[in-house]
Amino acid sequence: MASIAIIGQGYMGNAHAGAWASAGQADSIKYICTPRPKEGSVPAAKNAKYVTDLDVILKDPDVKYVSVCTPTPTHKDIAVALLAAGKHVLLEKPVALTVADAKVVADAAAKSSGSLMVAHVVRFFLGYQKLREIHESGELGNLLSVHARRFSPKPTWATWLGDESQSGGMLVDFSIHDFDQLNMYLGKPIEVFAAQTSPTGPAEITVKYEGGGVGQVQSFMNAAEGVPFTSTIDLLGTAGIAHYEFSAISATEESSSGNNAGVNSWHVFSSKGNTVEHIATDDPYGRQVKYFFDQASSGGKYDLSPTPAAISALQVCLAAKASLKEGRPVSIA
Predict the structure, then answer these.
(1) Span 123-286+314-331: which CATH code?
(2) pLDDT tens digits, residue range 110-128?
(3) Is-contact 93 176, C-beta < 8 A?
(4) Which of 63, 123, 164, 194 could disulfide-link 205, Cβ–Cβ 3.0 to 4.6 Å?
């Protein structure tokens, strides 16, 4: 029987283990791989063996599916090795810290008998998926602009996130979700301008698109303690506006099942009427893992989360960082 391995035992490793469990695959998690293993640190993987050597996974023919949940600088080497071994790889975003490294991973996937899906979990939130359905139905008319916001207190669940050399900083690790959404709706990004109140303050980013659309992102990863993790997105079209908002009880619930007392709802205001709906429960990580498992088992084509889109989102992140540094708009080739 095909087995699963998870690389990383931290917050995201636990999120993926829980997702595999919710997809009915808890007993299939064979390994947790980490440099400093702590038995039982990933409770959802109750039968897993904790190992320190990636070669154990690379050489085990039973392991077909691997979640990579490690700090971003390690992504390239781990993913390339797994793909060379023919594994199906679910790689946490961002693909890498540079576009060049991201393309190395994509090239390895193209040559592999396995496959690669980049874990952009926002694409699997019910509210974000609902807005995409509404847009594709034509109810909003021609899309003119997309606005997205994302903020939380400083994350404490992974110390490496605060090290820009490890995470890429807020614009790469945090804002990438919203840049990915903008690109999905508006197409090819051509120019980015970013401004920030201070090195740790909110950032405002404007992205121009080839077809004339404009997207705006507001990011803040250092909000006051007690501010819940919150994300919103607005689609502005010629025939209507759609809005989605998620706000958890606490900042640690970004990857929760959604069963909380926070806000999780979408709204549509158009010529067809107004609709408001609250989403009572959600399991985006579980939905993401199930999609990955199903697609990997049937050809490895991931239309809901394609690798070129993940690389394009990274390009916008890096252009936004360059714009902050240089104080001017930055073009994307």
Answers:
(1) 3.30.360.10
(2) 999 999 999 999 999 999 9
(3) yes
(4) 194
